[in-house]
Amino acid sequence: MIDLYTAATPNGHKVSIALEELGLPYTLQVLDLSQGEQKRPEFLAINPNGRIPAIVDCDEDDFAVFESGACLIYLAEKTGQLMPSDAKGRSRVIQWLMFQMGGIGPMMGQANVFYRYFPEKIPSVIDRYQGESKRLFRVLDGHLKDHEYLAGDYSIADIANWAWVRTHRWSGVELDDLPHLKRWRDQLRQRPAVQRGIEQPPSALDSRVDDPEKARQFAENARKMLEQGQSIKAGV
């Protein structure tokens, strides 16, 4: 049994999607980020960095893993699924996983902060992070032109990148001129395990993007978290 400590964010959904794809039994421990539950001592004992997601493998002496990418690698290696066992295949998956961890996630996260949450709108900063997010999207689009998935077969690399790319509208970045990325986004969205994973816990992202009042309310709550010094890097 896996205990998943999470919230309705892209990083959280990366792990819930993987658990659903792998068919591993798990319990959902949803943390209220607005109340700072991720900073409480009991959670810091699992993740000293005080961020979601984290997992505890109850079948392995309550072994704890934090950082979403590390969680994905651990689960893939535990089950022998969603990542090849040969050195080259494994490296390809990890390369695209690191692409998300070091690029897509941080750039979209900062785009969210300055486009949606930061009280002062600084156009040059917004342009910087939206522009870099779009550049990374073009990298994905170019690769997916000749590949169905990012690293051979469907893998944790696809899960990690998809969980962020699906939120592109919240970051203010469009995909209209990226047909291969859109194809991949829509294709993965049809997977039953992906559909289940983004409901663990449910996200109001789609309705929030389309409803200005809901978007305003969420941004206001996120702004308060910023002022309190809490992490909203994945706050969508």
TrEMBL record:
InterPro entries for this protein: Glutathione-S-Trfase_C-like (IPR010987), Glutathione-S-Trfase_C_sf (IPR036282), Glutathione_S-Trfase (IPR040079), Glutathione_S-Trfase_N (IPR004045), GST_C (IPR004046), Thioredoxin-like_sf (IPR036249)
Region feature Disordered, mapped onto this chain: 192-214
Organism domain of life: Bacteria
Stretches assigned to the GST N-terminal domain: 1-83
Gene3D superfamilies for this protein: 1.20.1050.10, Glutaredoxin
Domain GST C-terminal: 86-205
Protein name in UniProt: Disulfide-bond oxidoreductase YfcG
Biological source species: Rhodoferax lithotrophicus
Lineage: Bacteria, Pseudomonadati, Pseudomonadota, Betaproteobacteria, Burkholderiales
